[in-house]
């Protein structure tokens, strides 16, 4: 079964950091591009970041550029999102999603940024 | 950045009716790399259509996508009770891979 499981969310103060992880199983992780997408409470979907299958191509939304870093470890079938200088507006459920035209999503992990 | 506009914001229909959802891009979507997702409360999005008109695995044929350039449409024929949800379009041809604001299809 194809599966993505996010972890690492939680409560953090403004200016703090968190590292999200996404564990992939049931498919050849190293063959797929990956994305992070977030959804603020009661709001729509916002694409956050993309990484190519080998990690050589990376894109970010302007709202997170310079603060977030996407990475992957194909040997560990894992995707990561390092989030620094967090702001209240980063509060959201964060999903990892497989491929452009994302055909597989995790269940999401909630990040709450508040003082 | 390509801005996607979805209309209408809310569509109130009865089971059995046809739903027509629009997604308009501020500039041409490269390669017709446009997807449609369905999302229900408390759930992750589900891919329905990719590359503007290709149905994802396991998606019923009452869902169809069309369009190119800047204008795209998702059509749901014969609405089933489980189809009442929020629908998002996303372009993944040019970074940033933007989403539209969504169309809510609710029961009339």
Can you walk me through this structure?
The complex is a heterodimer of chains A (115) and B (108). Chain A is mainly beta. Chain A contains no helices and 11 strands. In chain A, a hairpin with a 5-residue loop joins strand 9 and strand 10 (104-105). The termini of chain A are far apart. The model of chain A has no long low-confidence stretch (mean pLDDT 97). Chain B is mainly beta and 108 residues long. Chain B is built from no helices and 10 strands. Chain B has strands spanning 4-7, 10-13, 19-25, 34-39, 46-50, 54-55, 63-68, 71-76, 86-91, 103-107. In chain B, the strands form 2 sheets. A 6-stranded mixed sheet of chain B has the order 2-10-9-4-5-6, with no helix packed on it. The chains are: A mainly beta (115), B mainly beta (108). Chain A binds chain B through residues 35, 37, 44-47, 50, 59-62, 95, 97, 100-108, and chain B through 1, 33, 35, 37, 39, 44-47, 50-51, 56-57, 88, 90, 92, 95-102.
Defining key terms:
heterodimer, A: 115 residues, mainly beta, 7-stranded mixed sheet, 4-stranded antiparallel sheet, 11 strands, 50% strand, B: 108 residues, 6-stranded mixed sheet
Enumerate the spans of chain A where pLDDT stays under 50 for 5 or more consecutive residues.
Answer: none
* Overall mean pLDDT of chain A: 97
Whole-angstrom Rg of chain A = 13 Å
Low-confidence stretches of chain B are none
Which strands sit side by side, in order, in the main sheet of chain B?
A: 2-10-9-4-5-6
Oligomer: heterodimer
Gyration radius from CA atoms of chain B, angstroms: 13 Å
The helix count of chain A comes to 0
Spatial separation of the terminal alpha carbons of chain B: 35 Å
* Structural class determined from secondary elements of chain A: mainly beta
Number of helices of chain B: 0
Specify the biggest β-sheet of chain B: 6 strands, mixed
* Structural shape of chain B: globular
The portion of residues forming beta strands of chain A comes to over 45%
Q: Quick one: how many beta strands of chain A? A: 11
